[in-house]
Amino acid sequence: MPSSAMPAPMTGSGPTSFSDVARESPLPWTPEASLLIGWLTRRSLANWSTARNPPAPDPGYAARVSTPTHPRNDRPSPPAPSDFAGRRVICFESRRASEMASLIQRHGGVPITAPTLREVPIERNERALDFARRLAGAEFDLVILMTGVGTRALVAEAAPALEPNQGSGGASEGDGGADAQGVSLLAAALSSVQIVVRGPKPAAALRELGLTRFITVREPNTWREIVEAVSALGDLRGKRVAVQEHGAPSHELYASLSAAGAQVTPVPVYRWALPEDTAPLRQALRLMADGGAAITLFTSRAQVEHALLVAAEEGLVERLRAALARGVVASIGPVCTEALRAEGIEPDFEPEHPKMGHLVKAAAARSIEILVAKGNRGDAPLPAQSS
């Protein structure tokens, strides 16, 4: 466009109306041009007005920008660590050792697994076979199942007693193999009696058999809650009660049921023994006694008993008790706590629920605070491992 055709710049008092702009514009008059010129006019008027009459300055703006809401020296100190903060954590799990180690790592700890137990099957378990025959003969009124592993082992060991034609190629009593027919007959026999399960794991084992009618003991799932659940069923005098053992006899349970008038038949399916290789356990106990690991997790009575048994063999019992008193001792529940106290060890806490995940989470949240309260710095966080 030639320079002579350009509209004159707006000076002086500025444009006052749409007509002023339209008269000065050399563009052809169209509806589109009308819309464009109208928009430009409104924008120009607004900009010109702001330039001639700027807003008054805000005296508080600079103060708001330059002064932080929280002065640096008034900021709260960072919270205490909510995890293990790189410290070593001793655990005595056997069958679930890898799961426990993973939980500890997830909460910032360095797991040291020292298995204390080994499940030893009972060869030719005559008591399990006798249980199956008596159950099928309606000689029990109530069956108490303590563990998921034990329930499955009981089925495997007891079902062969109910299999017909055992001399013609089927599984024989005591050979550890149960065919589908024997399992089906055992499940049918179980369905005819009242069943009490100690927790969700034996309940899951029963569901695998198609059994859904049973009573689940409330937490913390100790022998006391079992007695409570059984007593709620009615008078126990003369009742015939079979109890699936879980590695060791439950003497308190048997005594309480017998005192209420029940006839108790324990049915062992496996027993606890020390691991074949006890070197990791011995090394962990020595590390604890030397103060090299200040956080210890216990999840069963048998763990406590076996750990102290091996500590006695190593001559470490008194040093171990002293180290545990200075450190953090977490117990999964009341039965484990009773076992610790029987050995002169006072646990620092139990989790809200007697589950492994809850135990690790609670220990991660509380261990550093407990160590500080005891004046124990704990083992220093380990340096990162170079690959």
UniProtKB/TrEMBL annotation:
Q: Which domain of life is it from?
A: Bacteria
Q: Which GO terms describe its molecular function?
A: uroporphyrinogen-III synthase activity
Q: Which Gene3D superfamilies match?
A: 3.40.50.10090
Which CDD domains does the UniProt record give?
Answer: HemD
All residue ranges annotated as the Tetrapyrrole biosynthesis uroporphyrinogen III synthase domain in the record: 98-360
Residue segments, region Disordered:
1-25, 50-85
InterPro entries the UniProt entry points to: 4pyrrol_syn_uPrphyn_synt_sf (IPR036108), 4pyrrol_synth_uPrphyn_synth (IPR003754), UROS/Hem4 (IPR039793)
The biological processes this protein is annotated with in GO are: uroporphyrinogen III biosynthetic process
Q: What is this protein called?
A: Transcriptional regulator
